[in-house]
Amino acid sequence: MFNKALSVHFNYLICAQILTLLTAIKQLAGQTLWYGVSNIGAKFLNYLLTPLLTYLMTDISGVRDYGDYSLLYSWIAVVNIIFTYGFETGYFRFSNKEGMDRISLFQTAFSSLLISTVGLILLFSFFRVSINNFMNLEGHPEYISWCLYLIGLDSLCTIPFAKLRQENRPKKYAFVKLSGIIINILFTVFFLVWLPKYAEGHFNSFLSQWYRGNSRVGFLLMANLLQNLFVFLILFGEWRDFKFKLNKILWRQLFFYSAPMIFIGLAGMINEVMDRQMLAKFLPVSVDAKRVVGIYSANYKLAIFITLFIQAFKMAAEPFFFNQSKEKNAPDIYARVMKWFVITLSLAFLFSDLYLDLWQYMVGTSYRSGLSVVPILLFANICLGIYYNLSVWYKLTDRMRMGLIITAFGALITIAGNYFFIPYWGMYASAWTTLVCYATMVLITYYMGQKYFPIPYPTKRILTYLVFMLIFFIIKIGINVLSDSWGTGMKLVLRLPVATVLMSLYILIIAKLEGTELKTMPLIGKLIH
Asked: CA 111 → CA 97, 181, 243, 244, distances in Å?
């Protein structure tokens, strides 16, 4: 009788633990869904600009303009790290500390960013002509000012957005993000489609003269600047009660925690965007570098299904990981999250690559010569996503310097790989270097994480999914080679059914291996039963 009661009690405890795990993961999934909706919607709407721009900018000068646009935005991403100096992560970390006054935290963080933003804009403005010459923007120093204004507005939105995420208000977050992108698209269409036609019929008008005095790069910057202004204003409800109060003790703690994120962010951004800068600098003189950068950047956008999920996951996961860190079963939750994260990324990889014959039409014909780099970049982004997931250990254990060392090592790989191999292999050197960089960072982060914050990741299961993913990818490459000399119609007749069969087989493998867990999921479980 005692043994039976003990068995019942033990089973109850196991069920309660599983229920806790599933509840936590359900919370993360729900938040990821909403952040995913906003990011999927925002990225998709923003992604609509890629076919719009690549189909409108098909001539040689247009492809070169797209290259300029990509180069400029890669520097914007780098400078944005300096403007925000890691306060977003610091805000999440400190808001979960016991006894923390969140109002004081918001006032201090926002006040700090307000001061630094104004100061940095003024500082960089003194060098705008030199920066313009370095960027080869053909005598438009005002474009540098526009860049600074849009970066400044973006940095001021950082803490209000972080506040929305911390307070688990993904619906408001989604609304603001989507609204901003819609504004961007409307102004982009206005500047690149409507305004040229208007200028032809109203040659002497003010708008016509303004149009002729600017380039397509300038119009894209202006559209983004107006977007950021709109977003800042629509977030008014989050900073309406702001009062300039800087708690010096709290600021010092916040800054010393967040400061390493400046270097981690800069090193990480070097890994993400410096390949385009180095392509422009190290390609042979005989090669039109800006045109190659334009082609490479357009094809990079075809990794959207992976990048948007990673971005959505990052938005939800950072506050989630900090909130769950106090739970005893936190490592088990993190392990299960990693497994489903890799499964989702693997599905996104296959969905992108197996159907690349269709996705290629999302870029103009002048840009399709770079399609071969897409699978490499897709797998590189899988490694990046896994790295983001693994990096939880140094954030939770306050070992941000470890994160800095790992990211800096990745940056060295990026710089060395691009420097030595771009002159020989061009954009392919950049793509392979990106993959090697992120894969190395994954290995280092995993082994160091198991030392300082052990998490029981289902490594064999994760590797199984990745191996099957690569096997199906190789099979599809074989089919592509076999049908390469066929006409477009015949290619699709063979390749699309094969892609669908391979995709279906992969889903069946997931269902077979994860059947028990899938049955516990609300929607999928009903379908299985």
From this structure: 20, 27, 8, 6
C-alpha–C-alpha distance, residues 525 and 434, integer Å: 38
Taking the C-alpha atoms of residue 510 and residue 2, their distance in angstroms, rounded to an integer, is 40
Q: How far apart are CA 377 and CA 430, in angstroms?
A: 9
Q: 233-254: string of b/e by CB count within 10 Å (b at 16+)?
A: ebbeebbeeeeeeebeebbebb
**DSSP string for residues in 253-322:** HHHHHHHHHHHHHHHHHHHHHHHHHHHHHHS-TTS-HHHHHHHHHHHHGGGHHHHHHHHHHHHHHHHHHH
The answer to whether the CB of 113 falls within 8 A of the CB of 158 is yes
What gap in Å lies between CA 108 and CA 467, rounded to an integer?
48
- Residue carrying the six token digits 């409507």: 194
Comparing 115-119, 245-249, 254-258, 400-404, the range with the smallest average pLDDT is 400-404
Block residue for tokens 């983004």: 224
Q: What is the pLDDT of residues 385-395, one digit of tens each?
A: 899 889 888 87
Quote the tokens at residue 167: 């307070």
> What's the pLDDT at 16?
44
d(CA 145, CA 276): 22
DSSP letters for 250-270 = HHHHHHHHHHHHHHHHHHHHH
CA distance 343 to 309: 12
pLDDT at 314: 63
